[in-house]
Automatic annotation (TrEMBL):
The keyword Hydrolase applies. GO terms for biological process: proteolysis. It holds the Pfam family Abhydrolase_1. This is Proline iminopeptidase. Residues 19-253 form the AB hydrolase-1 domain. GO terms for molecular function: aminopeptidase activity. Gene3D superfamilies: alpha/beta hydrolase (3.40.50.1820). It is an enzyme of class 3 (hydrolase). InterPro entries: AB_hydrolase_1, AB_hydrolase_fold, AB_hydrolase_sf, Peptidase_S33.
Length: 274
C-alpha cells in the first residue's frame, strides 16, 4: 500500500473473521505477529511500520506520522472502525492512535506496553542483566562494537531471549526469522519524541478516552508492570489481565489464556464504545 506522502508499506490480512489491526513492537522493528493465533473468529491485519521490515526504508519518523500510517492501513483495508491490538511500543502507538482518532477504534488491546512515563528504565536494565545472566557479557560486547549483519542478529536474539520465562533462545530465534535490518534512526527519533512528552499530559488525554481498553501484562516481564498503573488509573473504560509466569510476549507463553482474554474482552466491551 502507498501512504499519502508516497511511502510504500507492507501489509497483509489473514483469516476470515472479525478484523483486528495489529501494531508491532519496536520502534524500528517489523511485524512479528505471524505467531499470533486468536482463533478462527478474527482476521489479523498486519503491517510493517514505516522504515522497517518489508516496508520502504524511508522516513520521516515522527509520532504524528506513525499515527497517520495506522489510519492509512485501516483505510486501505476498507474499514470504518476496528479493534486495535498493539504490543510493546506498538501498544503505545495503538494508544496514540486511539487518542487521535477515537471514532476509528472500537476497542484497544494494550499488550506488554510500558505506560506513560519513563522512570522504568533503570529497573528494566537490572532485571534484564539478571535474567540474561552469563550471556550478558556477550550482549554488552556486541552492543559496544561495530557489527556486521550476523552480529546484529546475534545481539537481537540475545536481547529477546530475556523476554521469555522459558525456551527463550528458541523463541528469540523464531522472532528473528525472517531477519530484516533494524532501523536505528526510527528507534532513536521516535524514542526521543516519546521521552519529550510529559506523563501528565498523556494522563490528561487518557482521562477523556472512551474507547474500551484491555491491558494485558505478563507478570514476569522484565519491564516493570507498575509503569502501566498510571495509564490504567487514567482510562475511564479499562480491563486489566495479569498473567503469572509470563514474560513480554504473552501469546507465545500463554496462548490459550491470551486468546481467551482478548476474545472475552471484545465480546463484552467492544460494542460499548461510542
Amino acid at each position: 500500500m502507498i501512504t499519502d506522502d508516497g511511502r510504500e508499506l507492507w501489509t497483509s490480512a489473514s483469516g476470515r473473521g472479525e478484523p483486528i489491526l495489529c501494531c508491532h513492537g519496536g520502534p524500528g522493528l517489523w511485524d512479528m505477529f505471524g505467531t499470533l493465533d486468536l482463533g478462527p473468529r478474527f482476521r489479523l491485519l498486519r503491517w510493517d511500520q514505516r522504515g522497517a521490515g518489508r516496508s520502504e526504508p524511508r522516513g520521516p519518523y515522527t509520532l504524528d506520522r506513525m499515527v497517520a500510517d495506522v489510519d492509512a492501513v485501516r483505510e486501505w483495508h476498507g474499514l470504518d472502525r476496528v479493534p486495535v491490538l498493539g504490543h510493546s511500543w506498538g501498544a503505545h502507538l495503538g494508544l496514540l492512535y486511539a487518542l487521535a482518532r477515537p471514532e476509528r477504534v472500537s476497542a484497544l488491546v494494550y499488550v506488554s506496553g510500558v505506560g506513560l512515563g519513563h522512570d522504568w528504565h533503570a529497573e528494566f536494565e537490572r532485571n534484564f542483566e539478571r535474567v540474561l545472566g552469563d550471556r550478558h557479557p556477550r550482549w554488552a560486547e556486541l552492543r559496544a562494537m561495530e557489527r556486521d549483519e550476523a552480529e546484529e542478529r546475534e545481539l537481537a536474539v540475545l536481547q529477546w531471549t530475556a523476554d521469555f520465562v522459558a525456551e527463550g533462545s528458541r523463541r528469540a530465534e523464531a522472532m528473528a526469522t525472517p531477519w530484516f535490518p533494524l532501523n536505528y534512526e526510527a528507534n532513536a527519533l521516535l524514542s526521543e519524541e516519546m521521552r519529550a512528552r510529559p506523563e501528565e499530559e498523556l494522563i490528561s488525554a487518557c482521562r477523556s478516552l472512551r474507547v474500551p481498553t484491555l491491558i494485558v501484562d505478563g507478570l514476569a516481564d522484565n519491564r516493570p508492570r507498575w509503569a502501566v498503573d498510571s495509564l490504567e488509573h487514567a482510562l475511564p473504560s479499562v480491563t486489566r489481565v495479569r498473567l503469572p509466569g509470563v514474560g513480554h510476549v504473552p501469546w507465545l507463553e500463554a496462548p490459550e489464556e491470551f486468546r481467551a482474554a482478548v476474545a472475552d474482552f471484545l465480546d463484552g466491551r467492544a460494542d460499548s464504545s461510542p
